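Consider the following assembly input.
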Amino acid sequence: MSLNLNLLISKEVKRVAGLLFNYESEIQLQPIGAGFEGSHTVVCFPISKVAKKSPEQTATLIGENLDKNLVSKFQVVKGFLNLTIADSVWLASFKDVYKNRESYLQLPFNGLEIMVEYSSPNTNKPLHLGHLRNNFLGWSVSEIFKANGYNVHKVQIINDRGIHICKSMAAWKLYGNGETPQSTGKKGDHLVGDYYVKFDKVYKEQMAAMLPTEDPEKNAPIMKLASEMLIKWEAKDPETVSLWKTMNGWVYEGFGKTYQRMGVDFEKLYYESDTYLLGKSEVLKGVESGVFFRKDDGSVWVDLTGDGLDQKVLLRSDGTSVYMTQDIGTAILRFRDFPKISRQVYTVGNEQEYHFKVLFLILAKLGYTWAKECYHLSYGMVDLPTGKMKSREGTVVDADDLMQEMVNDFAEETKQRGKIEELTEDEQKDLFEIGGLGALKYFLLKVDPKKRMLFDPVESISLQGNTAPFIQYTHARIKALIRKAQTLQLDLNNFSISSLEPAEREVLRFISQYPNKLAEAAREYAPSVIANYAYDLAKAYNQFYQSIPIFAETDALKLKFRIAFTEVVADLLKKSMWLLGIRVPEKM
RNA sequence: GCACCCGUAGCUCAACUGAAUAGAGCAUCUGACUACGGAUCAGAAGGUUUGGGGUUUGAAUCCCUACGGGUGCACCA
């Protein structure tokens, strides 16, 4: 059981406010504003309304009646009640955190299960920069929910069917000469992606050579081949299905390598080829029950004009399914597979906001009560300084290439500094991976997900500023300090201290707020909250360390306290970065 | 055209459910190495939070409006 300083103060203020004014609502507790004495502030305006007294009077009355053992001093500025917490309480709180530091940011299981979908690429091209934001975001949100006590199921849906796959297949059949990842040494996803590009090129050339009267868009030979393959695939033609399996296999193998380097994983994979039939039957059931309607040409539609949206097609006139149909099937299948999940999170780019709005509405109309627990974790596009990148245009930044470049650049910078000679070659390689990928992940995650952002590779690996390397470096320095302390044979288990420096109190305040930040990050599905808070802590620590040379301390008790204090900071940094999928080195 | 999102220092980003003097970093300028890893730290300068209204004791935050940027409005996925 851990002692939550904020909760303790809130409770006490609530007790007093209840006693004096019968105030029932929650207490607004905030960090102290700059330039004011104390550490916590109670905003008394809401209370003063109930109390029917001026904000100043209300604040003063509450302040006078607070437990003096908890709040040693208070000050009233306008409607703000500024509290100075007693040293003994700070110490007790800190000792508690120190004792439980391994589990400080891990809440016990709360009995709830949640599913997080992320990644979900097309199988016809390699992953790109946008997918990196998606994967890092999905993985991190999952970990944040785990830390908040949820049981999390990480899944993805794979677009393994449709005309886009057949395009790669057609191009490979015509121009592939039997090429395989083995024969070319290429990653499977890249090889298949190359043939998708090849298809596009040939298709455009063929269309340009045709007369408008020939309907080139449909009748270009390569497109005709792709369309035939789709029909054959749906008819389960053995040769076509076999090629489809082979080429998808190449892609999965390539993706697997990319995921491994990204550090993401999945509990279960869903394939559209497995879920679209369920979606179809659900839609047909909906027609029978009158939720959907059929047009004269046989196509099935849902009418959402009553919800402020428009009409949406669910089955084509030829009876085949569309994107929406598959997603209906997938959602239902997931709740069957995991009956205990209370919520489903879809990590998908913001260009699909309308799609998910419609999907959730349809599921609700079909009578699934869990539909209101579906959440679209929407994120903005990632731009590069050199120009904009879009998923459906040519200027795509490949994920594998970018990760490698980040690692190379970080290695280059680190070698130039020349402080890693004592590391073995393997250790160095690992360090470069930690630094390069950490820089990438941190930079993509520190920004509010819903905002469009600019990725600057140079800034991201900088050791100054709000970056992973800065935090990693701070952690490494603390670890070095602790190693040194241990050689001094300090007993860190029974520390005690007579008084605290203001700088120490400042960092303690940070630490005591950490669980709130964790909850906030989960509530907002925003790893950026954790990222920015970790940076603030690292920065506060650096300032502390600059103002108090730890080993210059002659008082043994104070020295012990400070070492213990740095250990907590290191652990919190490590855990925060872990929640972002970033490792922190012991040495760098 | 309709719908949704965004607009904060020169640049990249913060600001918890509305709260005190809107914060960091980069870049610029000035300082601190007899020092635990200076890869750091301190300081200066930089803002009418796109403009205009409104609600409120209090607005970057909520509402309206104009402007600017983005995205979506396929029997594509």
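Residues 387-394 of chain A have pLDDT under 50 and may be disordered. Ask yourself how this observation constrains the way the partners meet.
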